[in-house]
Amino acid sequence: MTFFDMACRGCGARRVEPFLDLGDQPHCNRLIPERLAAIPEPKFPLRAGFCHDCTLVQIDHTIPKESMFSDYPYVSGTTRTLTEHFKETAARLSATFGLGPQDLVVDIGSNDGTALKAYQALGLRTLGVEPAANVATLALEAGVETLNRFFNEETAAVIRRDYGPAKLVTAAGVFFHLEELHSVCRGIQQLLAEDGVFSVQAIYLGGMVEKTAFDQIYHEHLCYYTLRSLQALLAQHGLEVFEVSVKPIHGGSLEAHIGHPGKRPVSPRVAEMLAEEARAGLGELATYQAFADRVWRLRDDLLAALHDQAARGRRVFAYSAPAKGATLLNAFGIGPDLVQCAVERAPLKFDHLIPGARIPIRDEAKTERPDAYLMLAWNFLDEFIVKERDFLRAGGEFIVPVPHVRVVGAEALAA
Hints:
The protein has 415 residues and is an alpha/beta fold. 33% of the residues lie in helices and 22% in strands. It starts with 15 loop residues before the first strand and ends in a 7-residue tail after the last strand.
């Protein structure tokens, strides 16, 4: 039995055993300007391991947060699906917890303010905390008050002093990013009002295992949560999960509602999900070793599909250039010989190269159609099928890599 040379990010035990090695990879969101194409980028180990004490799945190498998040190419408002998800979430949480105009909503990792705009539309006080200066500026320009800094215990104290306690603190798609994990948890505990709620949405490890969604593993994602491992972390900081569910966004996200112990009744759903996780083997290393085996079978199937396209003289582009796409491309050794370019709607990504794979990123609106698209952002497949119905009707295809490799054509429109 071999363990990582690290303390578990959650419980501090030194029994984190590796189960998947995706090789040395560059920071997935550090896109390469084409003018710098000749300069090699640094690469870092990308390995996942399982803690035998608290069951937290995590990677062992940490790229400093200042390097990853001080400037950021991802903008939340790019996809309609995500925007609608934030609207639904805001309306549901506001109604569930009886939020009113006097209540403060704080969003950790607020990006361009897309999520907070939905709370603003409901008449609530909002404050974003976003470390990336470029996207924080977009939020400010859109009228969303935003602190350009990392959220931690110190930031929480500043917010409570200047704005008062928060009735709702949200972290959608960022809680697994946190290098200062325990400082953040202490900050949330201190910032919450007595009856305040912390609502976290994080890619659910159970869904990752079920879908073989290994591409969700990258350097920004330090931890991968089940309810059991999340509970173990929060309990150390005087926080209690009282409600839990799984939402479809991002291929399956755990949504947990958390508060001060005893302030809200704990839903039976919490115990039910813990039992479901146990039955699924999510607290056992063997489950993740089997997951790793499926990843390499997926590699073989995808490479076979791409080589088949090339043998038939068909051009394949990537449809969008998400962070998880870099994990897949680099782990499987896919470059411009098989995927000639990626098309994007996010201007911050135009005329850059996907790190490692060095596939050029082009403006979708100005790029001719290929014969097939590799769907790196497979979690938005339904939206893209509707958007690209004319392309599919004309004989175009989508190559979908997760949860299994399949080629989708016009027949998908009927569904």
